[in-house]
Amino acid sequence: MKTQVAIIGGGPAGLLLSQLLMNAGISTVVLERQSREHVLSRIRAGVMEWGTVELLKTAGVSDRMFKEGFPHEGCYLSSNDRMLRIDFEHLVDSRVMVYGQTEVTRDLYNAQDAAGATVLHNVSDVVLNDLQTSSPYVTFTKDGQALRLECEYIAGCDGFHGVSRKSIPASVLKEYEKVYPFGWLGILSETPPLEDELIYASSDRGFALASMRNANLSRYYVQVPLTDKVEDWSDDRFWDAFTDRLPSTIRGQLVTGPSIEKSIAPLRSFVSEPMQWGRLSLCGDAAHIVPPTGAKGLNLAASDVRYLSQALIARFADNDPTRLDSYGADALARVKLAMRFSWWMTLLLHRFPDMSAFDLQMQAADFDYLSKSRNAQISLAENYTGLPF
Ligand code: FAS
Ligand code: PHB
């Protein structure tokens, strides 16, 4: 087998990159470890920066999103009974789109099918070879057969647990990580959302987030200790904890119901560099992980894909390697700014087990400053809706 760009991973990063490159006449092959059903069964992100919306539009996969997604001009932050709206539109003339990552991935798979893309599922034993040469290749197993894919470039879009980052020698790779002492327990319920916009709720009992997927599908989260298991949390226990973390003024408007999905995700900040080594370039969770507090995970995957797709198109269409040479540095600069914001939002809104009385005072002062300073709100709004590229 031969292609111009081998893409490891058929999640949002890999599929979006493949779609953008194919639209530019560049051949790709996507190698995905799981089945398509498994990939589409994952419930993950829900908020997209407008830059991500525009990239999906450029890729030609935005029709359903504009029909079924919800543009949001603001969001709420609460601290116990205090509630503050961050007005994206009037502060930074921007907005976000609420549309589930599962639906984005479904749209991308449909577009790849329509484009006649080669997306191989249920592959195993993926190994990246000769990355420091001008003719790298990928070996893998599919249906019990050992196969070899010749290519010019490899995009590692295989997430945190993939093989791509680990294909960079440990002597070259630098990793920075912070593991948070709690996770998020998330549920989906077929109930009308609590509010028209998202509510990031901080309280003495811990953090909660009220999000949504559509007018009758809500996505809610509560901060839980790392030791908790999903089976420790009945629906009743979830609703009690969630309600208890909301401002008392809005608790009465909550509509509860049975959960149709329930899972716990650990929180970590992780970034590895370089994001590029020879003919291998990393995108998305393969290179970095952010706590979901800033709604950046999926958006950073799209950010990397924007830089890498433009660099590869310049390389193949104009024989201009300059953007490809600087891809790692360009992408990483924007990743670290989003990493900072996600870390800051996590510290602002969560109760950490080891917080001192002073820490709690400073956390309350942070919220106070935010509620009084338009400049502080502009800073939050510009980061949440997406910094410039
Ligand atoms: P992905 O992990 O989505 O995709 C990588 C793909 O590579 C997977 O399909 C995997 O099967 C495949 N793969 C792995 N190893 C392979 C191999 N060796 N060979 C071939 N294929 C391989 N972000 C938010 O913004 N908000 C959220 O609320 C949120 N919640 C999350 C909850 C969970 C449990 C997780 C894990 C992540 C969450 N994220 C959230 C972040 C998430 O949305 C990611 O940022 C997003 O999926 C990144 O997309 P990719 O980089 O494509 O990685
Ligand atoms: C979600 O809807 O799943 C969601 C929204 C915003 C976040 C995290 C998750 O910050």
Question: Could you explain how this protein is built, in words?
Answer:
By secondary structure, the chain is an alpha+beta fold. The protein has two domains: about 5-70 and about 95-175 and about 270-345, FAD/NAD(P)-binding domain (3-Layer(bba) Sandwich), CATH 3.50.50; about 180-265 and about 350-385, D-Amino Acid Oxidase, Chain A, domain 2 (2-Layer Sandwich), CATH 3.30.9. Helices cover about 35% and strands about 30% of the residues. The chain is built from twelve helices and 20 strands. It has helices at about 10-25, 35-40, 50-60, 65-70, 90, 100-115, 235-245, 295-320, 320-325, 325-350, 355-370, 375-385, and strands at about 5-10, 30, 45-50, 70, 75-80, 80-85, 95-100, 120, 125-130, 135-140, 145-150, 155, 175-190, 200-205, 205-215, 215-225, 260-275, 275, 280, 290. An eight-stranded mixed sheet has the order 6-5-14-15-16-13-17-20. Strands 8-2-1-12-19-18 form a six-stranded mixed sheet, covered by helices on one side. It has a three-stranded antiparallel sheet with strand order 3-7-4. A hairpin with a 7-residue loop joins strand 9 (about 125-130) and strand 10. The radius of gyration is 21 Å and the shape is globular. The two termini are about 35 Å apart. The model has no long low-confidence stretch (mean pLDDT about 95). The structure holds arabino-flavin-adenine dinucleotide and P-hydroxybenzoic acid (PHB). P-hydroxybenzoic acid binds next to loops.
